[in-house]
């Protein structure tokens, strides 16, 4: 007799159990148990009442295997209706990614470098940083990694732009409502703690691997969190006195937002964007598993085909790109900070 | 007597979750300490009645935590009262909706803050022009008004600088210019000079007095410094634990403190420098008796100097050229001895 059978009998659930006993496919464990036959009953007379153990006592209770299969079925069932909504909404993302990648690659190398160096210069206004950026790109081009780096960069730019576009307004909304903050915080925690691979699993089900939005969504979900968090934090930390001054002179809440809160929160918001850029970069490498182009594909090749040199050089390229992105966004941040510092 | 610009009537403010229910206790005579102990609510203000006269400087004085900031924030409804009313220029501000309240704040009142509260990312010119730009005035008009008032407070030439490039005193001048730019009647100053060092502070007080001579704004000025209060006040309100202990003309309060608390306050000041001849003189319209002439607005210090230490001397006190009284040096000496409290709530409102 299986453990816990008595318990179900005592609870009067016998008929319910019998009615639910449908057999279903046997698991390996069941087969082994059958082969071992009786006599091993008291090998463990008091096992943990897990789903599998309880199933033996009462057929109506699903096995763990049934549960995961059920989850999969549920997912497949809702997939189509979800896609009806999600597909058109996310289509612009695919479009933007595809075009950005094409654009970056269609530019002649000197034009691309010129544009990137110019962006770096105007964002940071630091000669040292600008020269470093120039050297980094020339170096990448010299070892024939420029095209890959451009693909990676294009993806990061598009994703960062979308993260800011949505993250900052969400952060603003969050700073205005304590309730929203309470509700959103666990989700943001979840997005940040979930292992990056886990993002990809439901997305693969929803979208085909050939669509850029697959990795686009994964990157955005992962990288948007600091933009939201730091916008919220920055606005909440705005000097109460200055806000009060705005109020005392009759500012509307809209005026308070764009004349006081956003400018005073700008250092924090920029710090959030810096983190968003860095997280995008780390995710775009992992997203090469689901066909994101760029330096990540080379790393993947290094792993899959044991081409040690290819993987390492691509890895170094990623590090170089990371330093470039970090230095430029940090220089921009410092420029903003300088305006806000030394206040009494 | 001049008319009131702001009337505060039976104002109560209680901080806590169940504030409205606490009002009845406060009305029944419960004070700050007891309310905190018995009900866990902070009694911010209790039964405040003040008439703020048009064109005068009303100074609200009290120690830290006595409720000064809470009181001044009721005038522009940065804080809402728990009970009572605030009438500004004939309108009960509790009856205003959000838009009309904003309108009131834009047109009728301005505020100067202890920590300046300037916008760090905007230039001095933009900061000073803030009240205009908030109202939606055009850039050119805003800048012109701001420039005018910056010049008036002595900041011509600093328009393009950012606040962090200025010293504290200059930053507060920007704060003052900002308040003036709003061109509103009521000016609220919450410890506006407390963060400045003494010399700068004194020159800022002079600036305010000089501006006041030309503009005659209705000013509510908060301070915890008695010398500052006596220098500026036309009407002095003394707060303690959220209640008014005494209010009236400063000279009168100095000579007739209503309460040991105020006696303490006034005991260490230099009375000779603060008391004025007209507060101490005898009101006689006597004929010409050959005494030396002294103006009623002079301080006792001046009178002592003029007497060369002679204790039996007398002066003929004049005001606006006419004889108003006689000052005996013996009275001067008496006035210099700190007065004991003359009983409770002896105010001359
Ligand atoms: N939002 C609030 N919640 C609870 N208590 C408050 C609040 N604001 C003020 N108080 C209390 O009200 C009392 C008066 O505070 P207020 O800031 O008006 O004092 P103040 O006279 O301006 O003091 P200071 O000279 O330090 O500025 C204090 O006991 C303070 O703790
Ligand atoms: Mg205060």
Describe the overall structure.
- The complex is a heterodimer of chains A (344) and B (349).
- With 344 residues, chain A is an all-alpha fold.
- Chain A folds into 2 domains: 5-62, no CATH class; 78-339, MetI-like (MetI-like fold).
- Chain A is 79% helix and 0% strand.
- Chain A has 15 helices and no strands.
- In chain A, α6 runs antiparallel to α7 (127-142) and α14 runs antiparallel to α15 (308-340).
- The radius of gyration of chain A is 28 Å and the shape is globular.
- Chain A starts with a helix and ends with a helix.
- In chain A, 34% of the residues are buried.
- Chain B has 2 domains: 54-267, P-loop containing nucleotide triphosphate hydrolases (Rossmann fold, 3-Layer(aba) Sandwich), CATH 3.40.50; 271-336, CBS domain Like, CATH 3.90.1280.20.
- Chain B is built from 16 helices and 13 strands.
- In chain B, the strands form 3 sheets. Chain B has a 6-stranded mixed sheet with strand order 6-7-8-3-9-10, with helices on both faces. A 4-stranded antiparallel sheet of chain B has the order 2-1-4-5, with helices on both faces.
- In chain B, 41% of the residues are buried.
- Mean pLDDT of chain B is 89; it is low at 343-349.
- The chains are: A mainly alpha (344), B alpha/beta (349).
- At the A-B interface, α12 and α13 of A face α4, β6, α6 and α8 of B.
- The structure holds adenosine-5'-triphosphate (ATP) and magnesium ion.
- The site of magnesium ion has 3 residues of chain B, from α3.
Task: Summarize the entry for a quick read.
The complex is a heterodimer of chains A (344) and B (349). Chain A has 344 residues and is mostly helical.
List its salient traits:
heterodimer; A: 344 residues; mainly alpha; MetI-like fold; 2 domains; 15 helices; 0% strand; globular; B: 349 residues; alpha/beta; Rossmann fold; CBS domain Like; six-stranded mixed beta sheet; four-stranded antiparallel beta sheet; 13 strands; 39% helix; 23% strand; disordered C terminus; binds adenosine-5'-triphosphate; binds magnesium ion
């Amino acid at each position: 007799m299986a453990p816990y059978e008595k318990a179900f009998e005592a609870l009067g659930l016998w008929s319910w159990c019998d009615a639910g006993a449908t057999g279903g496919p046997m698991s390996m464990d069941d087969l082994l148990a059958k082969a071992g036959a009786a006599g091993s009953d008291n090998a463990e007379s008091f096992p943990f009442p897990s789903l599998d153990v309880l199933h033996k006592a009462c057929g109506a209770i699903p096995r763990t295997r049934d549960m995961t299969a059920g989850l999969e079925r549920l997912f497949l069932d809702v997939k189509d209706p979800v896609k009806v909504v999600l597909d058109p909404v996310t289509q612009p993302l695919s479009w933007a990614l595809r075009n950005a990648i094409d654009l970056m690659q269609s530019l002649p190398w000197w034009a691309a470098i010129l544009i990137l160096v110019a962006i770096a210069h105007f964002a940071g206004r630091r000669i040292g940083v600008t020269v470093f950026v120039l050297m980094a790109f020339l170096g990448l081009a010299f070892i024939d990694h420029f095209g890959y780096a451009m693909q990676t960069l294009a993806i990061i730019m598009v994703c960062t732009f979308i993260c800011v576009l949505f993250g900052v307004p969400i952060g603003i909304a969050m700073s205005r409502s304590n309730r929203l903050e309470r509700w959103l915080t666990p989700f943001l925690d979840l997005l940040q703690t979930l292992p990056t691979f886990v993002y990809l699993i439901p997305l693969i089900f929803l979208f085909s691997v050939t669509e850029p939005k697959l990795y686009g969504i994964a990157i955005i979900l992962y990288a948007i969190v600091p933009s939201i968090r730091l916008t919220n934090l920055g606005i909440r930390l705005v000097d109460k006195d200055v806000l009060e001054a705005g109020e005392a002179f009759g500012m509307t809440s809209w005026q308070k937002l764009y004349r006081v809160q956003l400018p005073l929160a700008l250092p924090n918001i920029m710090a959030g964007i810096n983190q968003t850029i860095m997280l995008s970069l780390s995710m775009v490498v992992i997203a090469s598993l689901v066909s994101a182009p760029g330096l990540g594909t080379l790393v993947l090749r290094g792993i899959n085909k044991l081409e040690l040199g290819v993987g390492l050089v691509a890895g170094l390229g990623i590090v170089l790109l990371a330093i470039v992105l970090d230095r430029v966004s940090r220089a921009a941040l410092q420029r903003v900070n300088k305006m806000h510092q030394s206040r009494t | 007597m001049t008319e009131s610009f702001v009337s505060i009537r039976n104002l109560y403010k209680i901080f806590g979750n169940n504030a409205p229910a606490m009002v009845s206790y406060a009305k029944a005579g419960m004070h700050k300490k007891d309310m905190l102990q018995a009900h866990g609510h902070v009694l911010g203000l209790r039964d405040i009645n003040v008439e703020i006269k048009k064109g005068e400087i009303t100074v609200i004085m009290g120690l830290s935590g006595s409720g000064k900031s809470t009181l001044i924030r009721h005038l522009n409804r940065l804080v809402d009262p728990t009970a009572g009313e605030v009438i500004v220029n004939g309108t009960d501000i509790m009856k205003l909706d959000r838009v009309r309240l904003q309108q009131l704040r834009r047109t009728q009142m301005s505020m100067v803050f202890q920590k300046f509260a300037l916008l760090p990312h905007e230039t001095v010119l933009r900061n000073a022009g803030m009240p205009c730009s908030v109202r939606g005035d055009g850039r050119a008009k805003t800048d012109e008004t701001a420039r005018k008032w910056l010049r008036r407070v002595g900041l011509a030439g600093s328009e393009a600088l950012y606040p962090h490039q200025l010293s504290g005193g200059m930053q507060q001048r920007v704060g003052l210019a900002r308040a003036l730019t709003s061109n509103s009647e009521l000016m609220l100053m919450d410890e506006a000079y407390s963060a400045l060092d003494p010399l700068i502070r004194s020159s800022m007080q002079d600036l305010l007095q000089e501006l006041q001579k030309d503009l005659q704004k209705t000013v509510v000025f908060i301070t915890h410094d008695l010398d500052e209060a006596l220098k500026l006040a036309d009407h002095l309100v003394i707060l303690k634990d959220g209640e008014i202990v005494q209010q009236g003309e400063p000279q009168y309060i100095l000579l007739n403190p209503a309460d040991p608390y105020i006696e303490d306050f006034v005991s260490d000041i230099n009375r000779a420098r603060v008391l004025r001849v007209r507060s101490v003189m005898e009101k006689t319209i006597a004929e010409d008796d050959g005494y030396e002439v002294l103006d009623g607005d002079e301080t006792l210090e001046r009178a002592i100097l003029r007497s060369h230490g002679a204790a039996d001397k007398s002066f003929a006190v004049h005001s606006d050229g006419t004889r108003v009284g006689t000052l005996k040096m013996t009275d001067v000496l008496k006035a210099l001895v700190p007065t004991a409290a003359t009983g409770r709530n002896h105010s001359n409102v």
